[in-house]
Amino acid sequence: MKLIPRLAFCLISACLGASSGASALDLPGAASVTARQSELASAEPFPTGAYQNEDTPRLMAEGDVELVAYRVTGTSLTSYQLIAPLRRQLEAEGFQTLFACADKDCGGFDFRYQLDVLPEPAMHVDLSDYQYLVAEHADGRVIALLTSHAPGAGFVQISTVTPSDAPPLELTTPSSTDLTQSLRPAASGDLASRLEARGRVVLDDLAFDTGSATLGEGPFASLQNLANYLTTRPEMRIVLVGHTDNVGSLDSNTGLSRQRAQAVRQRLITTYGVSSGQISADGIGYLAPRVSNATPEGREQNRRVEAVIASTQ
User: Fold this and answer.
1) What is the phi/psi pair of residue 215, to 5°?
2) What is the DSSP-derived secondary structure letter of residue 12?
3) pLDDT tier for residue 174 given thresholds of 50, 70 and 90
4) What is the distance, to the nearest Å, from the Cα of residue 312 to the centroid of all Cα atoms in its chain?
5) Residue 119 parent element (H or E)
6) What is the pTM of this model?
7) What is the model's pLDDT at position 194?
8) Is the pLDDT of residue 21 over 80?
9) Which domains does the chain have, with CATH numbers?
10) Which residues pair with 133 in a beta bridge?
11) Smallest Cα–Cα separation from 236: which of 123, 122, 305, 313?
12) Is the per-residue pLDDT at 289 higher than 90?
């Protein structure tokens, strides 16, 4: 998949205008890009209110998605002090803030795990010290900011969705910026590379009976590829996360999604010989859709099991 840069963010300036004109944005310390992930013609659900279980309000932004993480070393700035100048920059460029919150007020752990966050160590999020903001421009662009802090370093993630017909923004990286890690999506068939690039991957070829947790006989190429990866990386730990569409209650969908994830876990252990200690399973029902559930095609895409990296130790 080709990377299409959409957001300019640099140590000295941020070029957030749709066409021209850059305004200064000073960041203290040494800032470096630690990860970047782009996906064309996709969608990203952004919370626009504090965590309320299945009633958490969301904006489903559709277009070209880019996630960029930064580490600011040698700083004692709080997560609020990191996000405040970015917010001012966005508002100066015509973005309207839709929602902003801090850790506990957002919903703590539950809210954080509704966000699409690049994996550790590229993006660190302290569950007791983070700030979140989502803003929208009149031209349809949506940007979400996430900041957090660790001893001696600050972390910033900027998530951008640009409508496909909007003019792209040039990515400007100053020579002083240290590109320490660039996480790029691999070819569509390379499951292991995609898993390492984004920290999660959808097992798209799985088949379940309608309304059932019974996994089809297969064989499923995604399970074989995932098993090969895990057996050669014994230090790797993953969580299989089941997802459903929004037909039915949250309780029933959560239970079904968890059972489907457990069925995939059992298949990986019994058929493919993966160590049980490397895999856990859970389900979150319809709380994290890939796309809108308004159409049959959307609901089909949302019914899935994902592998998520939990730990490499």
Assistant:
1) -80, 135
2) S
3) very low
4) 18
5) none
6) 0.51
7) 77
8) no
9) 13-162 (3.40.1000), 191-311 (3.30.1330.60)
10) 100, 145
11) 313
12) no
